[in-house]
Amino acid sequence: MTLPLIVYRSLRQHALSTLVTAGSIALAAGLLMVVWMVKEQSQKAFLETSTGFDAVLGARGSKLQLVLNSIFHLEASPGNISAADYDQIKKHPAVKAAIPLALGDNYLGYRIVGTAEELFTTVEYSPGKRYQLQGGGRWFAAGQREAVVGSFVAARLGLKAGDTFQPYHGLAFDAKAQHEEVYTVTGVLAPTNTPTDKVLWIPLSGIQTMKGHDPRTATDVSAVLIQLRSPTAGFMLDLMYNKQGNRLTLAYPVAAIIADLFGKIGWFDRVLALVAYLVALVAAGSVLASIYASMSARRRDLAILRALGARRRTIFGAVVAEAAVIGALGAVLGFAVYFGLLAAVANVIRTQTGVTIDILAGHPVLWIAPLGMVALCAAGGVVPALKAYRVPVAETLSPTS
Amino acid sequence: MLTVSQLVKRVASPEAGGAAVEIVRVPELSLAAGEQVALRGESGSGKTTFLHLIAGILAADEGKIVIDGEDVASLGESQRDRAREARIGYIFQTFNLLQGYTVLENVVLGMSFGPGGVDRARARQLLERVGLGHRLHHFPRQLSTGQQQRVAVARALANRPKLVLADEPTGNLDRTHGREALGLIREACREAGAALLLVSHDPDVLAQFERVRDFAEINQPRVPLPRAG
Ligand SMILES: Nc1ncnc2c1ncn2[C@@H]1O[C@H](COP(=O)(O)OP(=O)(O)OP(=O)(O)O)[C@@H](O)[C@H]1O
Ligand SMILES: [Mg+2]
To answer: B96 to chain A: which residues are within 8 Å by CB?
Structure first.
């Protein structure tokens, strides 16, 4: 009853510095949680995305580029591979499934990818999950000018079954490069939270035979997504394509290549985390400084409380509690910062990569970071609390002081 | 109730090159339960120091201060804090109200640290008793000096003290209000059954007490004090 009153009155008396300090703590806690959650979730989302396929076969080039291009639908394609190469891998006894991809067109900036219907009907994009259509419709028919649209594109462009669209040439949108062909949407995919959501899928032959595309490459594919029967098959194919051959590249294992990518960009979230830690430290320092600065103004109050019978350790506890309350206030405000910032960041990540960050997901960092800030602030309060502890009562109370 | 014997307090004096100088040496003083005594003393004669010693705000160097059977002079600091909260009410020369707290909160804090716990109803009653029932949620700066003094009186009585120490409680009030405040302090102490030890150099105040003693007779430090005027 008494301690809360003392803490409350003290915070009220120094309302401005309380708010400023709590604000900087909110920033630190929010930043720390966002950095952590984005790192955790994007890494998890990216790694899970890859699990649908074990390997990717494409033109000679960088394995990372091949993976980014064919699984995440980012970056340019390293080139095409011939129909003969596709047939060979498809018929290979170690291969369970081989899904061809052909790219080169877009619709209003969203990629149009040609593929086989098996992608939707036989592949689990994550363990136990198959692609589904939302709200009826059907898969496109091979050889027809039909399309199945990813949920994100459909939502953004307002496309639904029965709608038509005319593709544009190239991976980047150019209003002058529209094709003549008209495609009809036969269905919209249910959300998968994978990059598949931001693609317009059409039959393989659609991309291959689009007017204006080079007829000599009409049977080529851009890449082949591969599911293997066993891991040893992967090493065998790796040897065959990457070591002995020199025309094609087999990106295998996909998960390791993505993990490698995170290793390469790991410095980025470490820098962000470092910034957050520094902000946290500065915030705790400002708790210390602001309470310490107000100490001379409160000396008299503290001496009066002592004269009323408050023990030294009560006074000490009140000052530490005050610092902790500022920290707690900051931590609570930190969640506002967290949700605001994470919503913005999640939106950017989603539009850029198709990977969805769950804003409401739980994680230990969401209580460790706020509690850590409270503890750090309480620790910052120890220095002024020691000063309060030492206030001499009689001298401070004498009328002249 | 209160028995002081052979009490000595020394402080490091800058005039004596930092050497310890006696400012209090009280061979004997006692007060019966409920008794009201005034001490007459010059400025700088050690009255405040003496009251601080009895309250346990300062530690004694020698002697005994027995309050209600317990020698507070022999206690450590935190035990003196507890003893003060349990038995003593203190009215300061400058009131020493907590400026950031309301009138009611000031009185509540007067009973917060002891074993009795907080009794808000009693805090209200006390404030009504001193005529401030309509000012409970004011802050001290919103009150007149006389009203502030009355808050200090209510606060001193909040913890049901056996002994109230008053240090020139009317020093900051004009003559009329001073008389009124003093009357209130004495009455309130009598009602509460608390003994009152008051120090002052104001003849008008001292004239109201049946028992007045000269502090110069009671306090006889070995080294004469430089008089401060
Ligand atoms: N901590 C200290 N260090 C040195 N001298 C002190 C200390 N405390 C008090 N004194 C000295 O002791 C003397 C008595 O001080 P005290 O405050 O008790 O006087 P007082 O009788 O209450 O005076 P007044 O009526 O003006 O309030 C003064 O001369 C003062 O200078
Ligand atoms: Mg004095």
So the answer is: 300, 304, 307, 397
